[in-house]
Amino acid sequence: MPTTGTGESGVTAPNGHWAGTGLPEPPRTAGGVTLCGGCRALGACRLGVERERLDEGGVARFELSCPRSHEGGPDVAHGGWTAAVLDDCLGHLPLLHGVMSVTAELTVSFVKPVPVERPLELRVWADRREGSRWYIAGEMTLAPGGAVLARASGIWVTRDRSHYARHAKWLAGQVEATEGQ
Ligand SMILES: CCCCCCCC(=O)SCCNC(=O)CCNC(=O)[C@H](O)C(C)(C)COP(=O)(O)OP(=O)(O)OC[C@H]1O[C@@H](n2cnc3c(N)ncnc32)[C@H](O)[C@@H]1OP(=O)(O)O
């Protein structure tokens, strides 16, 4: 992934394009975390993902912790945080292969309460690929000891650059149709 250097925030400014999409590469933090639209202004992942990498076996590994701002019950994560971070990290597996995709289905098992502000790990792998569909699974564990806290699996569908333009066109059509009512 070509880059133009690292700014003061540690976020690497991209100058390349995702293979096959024509879309600009998203920026990455010093920890290698690809930033989505909402996190770019902050220069950090708001879900608390600190590091990400692809290991030799093709498994994506993440270091993270649940920020206090996502506390649900006392000292434990809101389930919405757990689902969101699993969606985000599972979707980063195609990204780490230079492929853009969107979540089509996601199933989450909440195995144990997730403590806030504790080091966590997440492993993500592809069970199989069929055409444009990636069948991805992952497991969140407590960093010391490796107790499983949550599991997720789902389907990601690869997209090309027309995805968002197509959406904008579809939305404009919906708005136009309701304005005429
Ligand atoms: C770091 C940067 C990260 C950036 C990536 C972030 C990734 C995410 O956040 S993903 C967000 C959550 N997921 C989504 O928004 C996906 C929404 N769903 C979809 O786009 C589609 O259902 C999708 C692509 C999964 C379906 O794919 P596929 O199964 O191949 O079905 P396909 O036959 O092409 O389309 C199914 C329906 O969706 C519609 N559709 C597909 N793509 C689009 C689109 N871009 N715009 C509008 N409608 C669309 C089709 O027209 C069709 O509609 P209908 O049933 O009425 O004919």
Basic shape: globular
Our measurement of the CA-to-CA distance between the termini, rounded to an integer number of angstroms, reads 48 Å
- Order of H and E elements: EEEEHEEEEH
Helix content: 10-25%
What top-tier CATH class fits best?
Alpha Beta
Largest sheet: 6 strands, antiparallel
Count of helical regions: 2
Mean pLDDT: 90
Instruction: Count every beta strand, where a strand is a DSSP E run of 2 or more residues.
Output: 8
Q: What share of residues are in beta strands?
A: 25-35%
Radius of gyration: 18 Å
CATH architecture: Roll
Strand order of the largest sheet: 3-4-6-7-8-5
Oligomer: single chain
CATH topology: Thiol Ester Dehydrase, Chain A
What is the SS-derived class? alpha+beta
Short description:
With 181 residues, the protein is of the alpha+beta class. Helices cover 20% and strands 33% of the residues. Bound molecules: octanoyl-coenzyme A.
